[in-house]
Amino acid sequence: FLPHLVASMEQVEETYIMVKPDGVQRGLVGEIISRFEKKGFKLIGLKLFQCPKDLAEEHYKDLNSKPFFPKLIEYITSGPVVCMAWEGAGVVASARKLIGSTDPLQAEPGTIRGDLAVQTGRNVVHGSDSPENGKREIGLWFKEGELCQWTPAQAQWLRE
Ligand code: UDP
Ligand code: MG
């Protein structure tokens, strides 16, 4: 076991983050992107997109038996969203912490939902809940050729 190798062996993950239509309409796109950018994760995909109903239904298929499902689909397709793919070790769980609890009134101050939203049905942002779903969702929302692999200039100042 070689402790100095642990950092380089950390599993690089990808997560799908989306500014929902309320976040776009309320002018929060820059603020939300900024939280992930400043943290030090790597942006590998970004676009403004009007989501069709079938994609919204596929994205949220695990929730399709919930009573709020029809309103959720209506919400997500009600205007353009900003689709993002972010990469980094531990990015999936860390992004969920930056986003905060599903119910913005329960979300801690300092989190995106805690600072910028008041209701579950208008909680401004989505983040994948597992590395598997991160991959699945990036595959749903981005086409091949829309993701960029690049080396940020700050990489050596973020990780030892
Ligand atoms: N949602 C809702 N009512 C609920 C629960 C969820 O409108 O009672 C919406 C809300 O926009 C939430 C999304 O459905 O963000 C997905 O729900 P999930 O439990 O996956 O929450 P998340 O992972 O977004 O925190
Ligand atoms: Mg979820």
Short structural summary:
By secondary structure, the chain is α+β, with helices and mostly antiparallel strands. It has helices spanning 6-9, 21-25, 29-39, 53-59, 69-76, 91-99, 112-116, 131-141, 155-158; strands spanning 12-19, 42-49, 81-89, 125-127.
Model description:
- The model has no long low-confidence stretch (mean pLDDT 96).
- A four-stranded antiparallel sheet has the order 2-3-1-4.
- The protein has helices spanning 6-9, 21-25, 29-39, 53-59, 69-76, 91-99, 112-116, 131-141, 155-158; strands at 12-19, 42-49, 81-89, 125-127.
- 40% of the residues lie in helices and 18% in strands.
- The chain is globular and about 45 Å long.
- It is an alpha+beta fold and 160 residues long.
- It starts with 5 loop residues before the first helix and ends with a helix.
Beta fraction: 15-25%
Which structural category do the helix and sheet elements fall into? alpha+beta
Number of helices: 9
Largest sheet: 4 strands, antiparallel
Whole-number average pLDDT?
A: 96
Helix-strand sequence = HEHHEHHEHHEHH
Uncertain parts: none
Beta strand count:
4
The strands making up the biggest β-sheet line up spatially as 2-3-1-4
Percent of residues in helices comes to: 40-55%
Based on CA atoms alone, the radius of gyration comes out at: 16 Å
